[in-house]
Write a structure and sequence with these properties.
The protein is of the alpha+beta class. A hairpin with a 3-residue loop joins β16 (571-576) and β17 (580-588). α10 (403-431) packs parallel to α14. The chain has helices spanning 5-53, 70-80, 113-121, 161-211, 226-261, 280-285, 298-301, 305-316, 358-393, 403-431, 444-461, 481-497, 544-549, 556-566; strands at residues 85-90, 95-98, 123-130, 135-146, 149-159, 265-270, 275-278, 320-327, 333-344, 347-356, 440-442, 465-470, 477-479, 504-512, 515-522, 571-576, 580-588. The chain is rod-shaped, with a radius of gyration of 66 Å. The protein binds adenosine-5'-diphosphate.
């Protein structure tokens, strides 16, 4: 059971009071008793002196009056009038007379200490319980010399009764006063403890509140005492805590927002290779279905041995390890891994950062492929030109039948070389953003007609029909007419090249949103699903031999894609092998208010 403050204070006061009262009671009684006894003996001694001055006359030397003789009894009665008990005893202890008892019934008094002392030194005193009268008495005895015989002892006694009564009175008053004091102090302690424990309770509630995260200040009572100082200092502490927690929370939110929105994967592991933290990027990069839980072992989450090895190296003592990992099987992605040692407070571990370098790797590959492709593309015509020139020089120049054919072959290959260099030049211009597009409002139907017109002849040569299907009232498009014509021309050329005779080519255009979508569809050979994403790459051809045969460079669609994107549009293909292909591209609608020229691109 827990005692409340009131009872604690009450008991403390009570114990204090008792602790003071008991010695007071004890010493007061002793002092009082001593005083009383002293004055009692003094009084008896005074009476004794009077008695010695006026001894009983009836006593004659050598011949004691018989016990109980009238003169002795009178003297005893006279002396006893002062209120004391008077006894006359012979030196051998026999009682001759007594003011309160019959001497005949009294025992021999020689053994009484006061008698003994009186005989020895002249006076003696003692306090004793009198068997004779059954009371506590003060005794004082003196020796009365008797001429020519043994002395007599005169003894005076007064009862202690009054002393005990007085002591009892004193005690009663003392304890009564103490009781009153106890009640007063009890009431005071109740009042003090009430207000005190109320204030302590308020402080406790406040600290409970703070523990739960409520930092509103407590109202400080204006008592000016230590409790008020405590409340003020608690308020300051709570305020400081509040500010610190706020700052920490803000910082935590900020860093978790930063980590959460990072595309880079970030994770922290402890010294025993368990994850302490992983951001969403980390889970995404490693293709984890569920974000890894804090505390899960890294080996269970990560399969890439290079990454695990790097972490182990850092945990063994390296400060920083860099490596590379590959994820995904169909679509490979490359990541640069940086593992660095971290030590914060008591924990040490490693922080892992995964950075996507797939684009870099892709670019490197594209560049390598490109150089290889360019060399390869140049090699065939150059070998042909070189071969036929050598043949001519070796004498074929005189062969009237063949020399023209040889020269035609040389011309054809050099034209191909020219086309190649033209296309490459254009691509490099596009790469350098030096196209210098001149954007104007271009009428769709007029634009389509002029392109179709150019394509009509080669189509007719291959027995192909071109039809046009334009939506009504198409808005003008924002385009560089000449450049966009190259795109459409190229798509039509391809459709003609890759559609067997008797096929159909259809060109359509429709507006939706703020763009116009052009579609060139054919009933040709189609493009395999796996090649479709790649045909817009430079030099990519589904069937290299066939492309060469028809004079293609493999750059047409790459250039078309560049041009469309420079116009702010998109290009894509839908195709099914043996059924035909649909090439779509979009061009933004012309908005006269926005621009008349999109210079630069
Ligand atoms: P090329 O000069 O070889 O035509 P392109 O870049 O224009 O180069 O086209 C790339 C490849 O895409 C072609 O080699 C061909 O394999 C394929 N292709 C393009 N258009 C068509 C089409 N309409 N039908 C079938 N295949 C096509």
């Amino acid at each position: 059971m827990r005692l409340n403050l009131f009872w604690k204070l009450g008991f403390a006061f009570f114990a204090l009071l008792i602790a003071v009262l008991l010695p007071v009671d004890f010493y007061a009684e002793r002092a009082l008793r001593r005083d009383y006894e002293r004055s009692g003996f003094e009084q008896l001694a005074a009476i004794a002196r009077i008695a010695l001055a006026h001894p009983p006359q009836a006593i004659a030397p050598n011949s004691y009056a018989p016990v109980g003789t009238a003169p002795l009894n009178d003297w005893v009665a006279q002396m006893a009038a002062s209120g004391v008990r008077v006894t006359v005893i012979t030196s051998d202890g026999q009682v001759l007379a007594d003011s309160q008892s019959d001497p005949a019934t009294m025992e021999n008094h020689a053994g009484r200490p006061e008698i003994h002392d009186a005989l020895a030194v002249g006076a003696g005193q003692s306090i004793r319980h009198s068997v004779t009268i059954n009371r506590e008495l003060l005794y004082y005895a003196v020796r009365l010399p008797v001429a020519g015989g043994p002395p007599l002892i005169l003894r005076f006694a007064s009862p202690l009764q009054t002393l005990n009564e007085e002591l009892w009175e004193f005690r009663k008053r003392l304890w009564l006063a103490s009781l009153v004091m106890l009640l007063v102090t009890g009431a005071a302690s109740l009042l003090i403890s009430r207000s005190f424990s109320g204030r302590v309770d308020r402080l406790k509630q406040f600290s409970d509140r703070v523990a739960e995260g409520d930092f509103r200040p407590i109202e400080a009572d204006r008592s000016g005492d230590v409790m008020e100082a405590l409340a003020v200092s608690l308020n300051q502490t709570a305020g400081r805590l509040d500010r610190t927690i706020r700052t920490l929370t803000e910082e935590r939110n900020l860093s978790s927002a930063i980590l959460g929105s990072m595309v880079e994967g970030v994770a922290v592991v402890n010294a025993s290779e368990r994850l302490l933290f992983a951001n969403p990027g980390f889970a995404e990069i490693l293709d984890l279905d569920v974000p890894p839980k804090s505390g899960s072992a890294l080996v269970e989450v990560v399969r890439q041995t290079e990454l695990l090895e790097a972490v182990r190296q850092v945990l063994k003592g390296d400060t920083r390890v860099e490596t590379e990992i590959v994820t995904g099987t169909l679509r490979q992605r490359f990541f640069a891994v940086t593992v660095a040692a971290v030590s914060a407070a008591e924990t040490s571990g490693a922080v892992i950062v995964l950075h996507d370098i797939s684009d870099l790797r892709k670019l490197e590959r594209v560049r390598r492929d490109f150089v290889a492709n360019v060399s390869h593309e140049f090699k065939t015509p150059l070998t042909a030109i070189q071969g036929f020139a050598e043949t001519l020089l070796a004498g074929a120049i005189d062969d009237a039948q063949n020399r023209v054919r040889f020269l035609e072959i040389i011309l054809e290959h050099s034209q191909r070389l020219a086309r190649l260099t033209d296309d490459l030049l254009r691509l490099s211009q596009m790469d350098a953003d030096r196209l210098g597009l001149e954007i104007h409002g271009v009428g769709v139907s007029q634009f389509v007609e002029s392109c179709v017109e150019t394509a009509q002849r080669p189509a007719a040569e291959r027995d192909l029909r071109i039809s046009v299907n334009l939506a009504k009232r198409l808005p003008d498009i924002a385009a560089d007419r000449r450049r966009l014509a190259e795109v459409l021309q190229n798509l039509l050329d391809n459709a003609i090249q890759y559609t067997p005779p008797g096929g159909q080519i259809m060109l359509s255009a429709s507006a939706s949103g703020n763009e116009v979508t052009f579609t060139v569809s054919d009933t040709g050979i189609g493009i395999p699903q796996t090649d479709q994403p790649r045909i817009f790459e430079r030099f990519y051809r589904v069937d290299v031999a066939r492309s060469r045969e028809v004079g293609g460079t493999g750059l047409g669609l790459a250039i078309a894609k560049h041009l469309v994107e420079a116009h702010g549009g998109r290009i894509w293909v839908e195709s099914e092998i043996g059924q035909g292909s649909q090439f779509h591209f979009t061009v933004p609608i012309f908005d006269p208010e926005r621009s008349s020229s999109r210079g630069g691109r």
